[in-house]
Amino acid sequence: MSLTRKRKKELKRLRSSAEELWEQQQEVLAHANAVAAEARKQAVHYSREELAPRVRDGYDQYVRPATHTAGRVAGIARDRLVGDVIPAVGATIGTAMSVVDHARDARARAFIGDVKKAGKDVSKKAKAATQKSGPGAGTVIAVGLAVIAAVGVLYAVWQTFRADDELWVADEEPTATTAE
């Protein structure tokens, strides 16, 4: 196939136009790279000069006070536990143990007194005491006091943690919608 002179000239012009376009595109890309490099450089300056101080101020204004508040609340909770709950639990358990010891001593003294008064048949009384089944009055009193102590401990713990819930206040009151 042979091309006419006219077609050869047109192809030659088209090829030169394509080469010229390619050179222009190369220049545009080089210029775009230069602009992108400058934009990157300006973004670094902007973040260092504008964003970093804002982030630092936001941290100082919002995050740091919140962490201090959380630390104070945890300290208060620890102080309440150590200062109020643990001593109350210890006192309650100590009282219950004292009552149990006292009940045991009273039973032992009563038993010895009975043995001394009777005097004649100690073995008979010992058998009667060992054959006795069921809890005695001291056991019932000790169990009752232990239950009261446990209820007291639970009430103290409940009061301690209930007081913290009352500190929360709703920002907005819920609005009731009326259906018509």
Detailed description of the structure:
With 180 residues, the protein is mainly α. It has one domain. 85% of the residues lie in helices and 0% in strands. It has helices spanning 5-118, 122-131, 137-165. The longest helix is centred in the middle third of the chain and has 114 residues, at 5-118. The relative contact order is 0.05.
What features would you highlight for this structure?
180 residues, mainly alpha
Structure at a glance:
The chain is built from three helices and no strands. It has 180 residues and is mainly alpha-helical.
Architecture blueprint of SSEs:
Layout: H1 5-118, H2 122-131, H3 137-165
Helix pairs in contact: 1-3
What is the terminal-to-terminal distance? Answer: 89 Å
Point out poorly predicted stretches. none
Helix and strand content put the structural class at: mainly alpha
**Rg, alpha carbons:** 46 Å
Would you count the extended β strands for me?
A: 0
What gross morphology would you assign? Answer: rod-shaped
Largest sheet: none
Number of domains: 1
- Helical stretch count? 3
What fraction of residues sit in β-strands? Answer: under 5%
User: What value does the average pLDDT take?
Assistant: 80
Q: State the helical fraction.
A: over 70%
Q: What's the SSE pattern?
A: HHH
